[in-house]
């Protein structure tokens, strides 16, 4: 008898152990209850209607019209996905996808045609009100980026982001947005990827406004943007938060930097990379001590002196400014796409931010490619980056505001399906196994759109758009179907598990 009992007990232990394994392995493929899933776009890339109903010109209208040679096939965003007229179609596909949240951006020049708040274009306000109301009527939460690279031309005419006066103008613009939309919008991003749009002041043939002042104009632009972000955050605190109760963050982009070898020098160079690229913006805002990272201040001021400048090319914050800026966040938006290999050394134009940073960047030829030269598929880098952020910034709430893959088109987008499922799995491991506080994820992008200097040649959409067809039909790709399954079940489907 005791033999039977013994085996019965053993069986129970084995079965319950196995159950526990199933439960825990299921958890790591499951999104936490509060986690928000959705998709993202940006105004210039989708809206079109570039000069309709009172919209003013912006720096991307100017670049695409005056320098068609800078953009693949001379493409423009004049019509793009025509979302200005077809926003109900966008909401329809978001609903079909099962998105809980839609991240879109507001075109500053559609709302304030001259950039200033003395002239408010009512048609622009109506457009975004209609979009927001349509989203809410369909149970989708709006997440608004205030600035996704389309500066009103009138403000560029004053020098654009290197001119510190834009910090004040940004605050005035933000006030218009909070006043008009803040009753319904509870998730705000002040800026999208300042690290990328500061490059518009670092190269002659590049992102708008294509001004060639590397190592100077780009740092000035960054400095203004940090001031602007802090002003907007304080504005929300002082005039809107009590009544509206929303959250204000910023979207920063960062690649994982994997040391090329395990040498102390290569590891240090990747740390430089993180500080020069993420720390440049995140250190002043997200650390206890605030201000630019020490390594950034030291290296730029040393290089500036060697190059014969009296002052560092990197502007300085006063002690009061450091205080004013630090802590101006409710969450951190992260755009993650790819990884780099970092080696100790110096390369790049003199002067330039890349040269200042003291790292030589390459990519591993073995990493799978996409249609974009810079985008290699390195999902494990995502988990490592999330852990770096957790450790560096005291585990703030992180919202993944972009993550996505490019190809040249086609509905059977297996490369994109692989990209999303692998990145989502790494993110879930970071959440469940490493304790990183990730609270949401919006895929880039809801649909194919104007991919900046690459025009319509590189496709990031989970919905295909035919840019030859005036009706711009939105057709789900395989990735949209897989993401819909994920959003509806809130799990990684079994067939994609390890
Ligand atoms: C930007 C998007 C862009 C995407 C793919 C991000 O840098 O925020 O506007 O389309 O990456 O290049």
TrEMBL record:
Matches recorded under Pfam families: Glyco_hydro_1
Domain of life the protein comes from: Eukaryota
Listed GO biological process terms: carbohydrate metabolic process
Molecular function GO terms recorded: beta-glucosidase activity
Entry's EC annotation: 3.2.1.21
InterPro entries in the record: GH, Glyco_hydro_1, Glyco_hydro_1_AS
Stored SUPFAM superfamilies: (Trans)glycosidases
Family affiliation: Belongs to the glycosyl hydrolase 1 family.
Subunit structure: Homodimer.
Protein name: beta-glucosidase
Organism encoding this protein: Neotermes koshunensis
């Amino acid at each position: 008898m005791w033999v039977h009992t013994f085996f019965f007990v053993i069986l129970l232990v084995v079965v319950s152990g196995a159950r526990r394994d199933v439960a825990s392995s299921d958890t790591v493929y499951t999104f936490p209850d509060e986690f928000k899933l959705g998709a993202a776009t940006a105004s210039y890339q989708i809206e079109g209607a570039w000069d309709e109903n009172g919209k003013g010109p912006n720096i991307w209208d100017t670049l695409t019209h005056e320098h068609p040679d800078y953009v693949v096939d001379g493409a423009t965003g004049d019509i793009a996905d025509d979302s200005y007229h077809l926003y109900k179609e966008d909401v329809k596909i978001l609903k079909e996808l099962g998105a809980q949240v839609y991240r879109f951006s507001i075109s500053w020049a559609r709302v304030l045609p001259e950039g200033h708040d003395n002239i408010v274009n009512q048609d622009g306000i109506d457009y975004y009100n209609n979009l927001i109301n349509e989203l809410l009527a369909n149970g989708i939460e709006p997440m608004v980026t205030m600035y996704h690279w389309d500066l009103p031309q009138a403000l560029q005419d004053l020098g654009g982001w290197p001119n510190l006066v834009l910090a004040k103008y940004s605050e005035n613009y933000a006030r218009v947005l909070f006043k008009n939309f803040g009753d319904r919008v509870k998730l705000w991003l002040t800026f999208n990827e300042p690290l990328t749009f500061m490059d518009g002041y670092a190269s002659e043939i590049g992102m708008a406004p294509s001004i060639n002042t590397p190592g100077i104009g780009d740092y000035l632009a960054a400095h203004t943007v940090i001031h602007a972000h802090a002003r907007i955050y304080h504005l929300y605190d002082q005039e809107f938060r009590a009544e509206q109760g929303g959250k204000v963050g910023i979207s920063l982009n960062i690649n994982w930097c994997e040391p090329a070898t395990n040498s102390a020098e290569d590891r240090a160079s990747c740390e430089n990379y993180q500080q020069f690229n993420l720390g440049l913006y995140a250190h002043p805002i997200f650390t206890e001590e605030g201000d630019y990272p020490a390594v950034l201040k030291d290296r730029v001021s040393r290089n500036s002196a060697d190059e014969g400048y009296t002052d560092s090319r990197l502007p300085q914050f006063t002690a009061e400014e450091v205080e004013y800026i630090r802590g101006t966040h409710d969450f951190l938006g992260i755009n993650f796409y790819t990884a780099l290999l970092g080696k100790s050394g110096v390369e790049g134009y003199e002067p330039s931010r890349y040269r200042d940073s003291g790292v030589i960047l390459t990519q591993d030829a073995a990493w799978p490619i996409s249609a974009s030269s810079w985008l290699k598929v390195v999902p494990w880098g995502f988990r490592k980056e999330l852990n770096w952020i957790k450790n560096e910034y005291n585990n703030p709430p992180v919202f993944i505001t972009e993550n996505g893959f490019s190809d040249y088109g086609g509905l059977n987008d297996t490369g994109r399906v692989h990209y999303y499922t692998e990145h989502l799995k790494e993110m879930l491991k970071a959440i469940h196994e490493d304790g990183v506080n990730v609270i949401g994820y919006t895929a880039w992008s809801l649909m194919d759109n104007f991919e900046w200097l690459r025009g319509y040649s590189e496709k990031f959409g989970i919905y295909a758009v035919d840019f030859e067809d005036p009706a711009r039909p939105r057709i789900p790709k395989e990735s949209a179907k897989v993401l819909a399954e994920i959003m509806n079940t809130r799990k990684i489907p079994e067939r994609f598990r390890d």
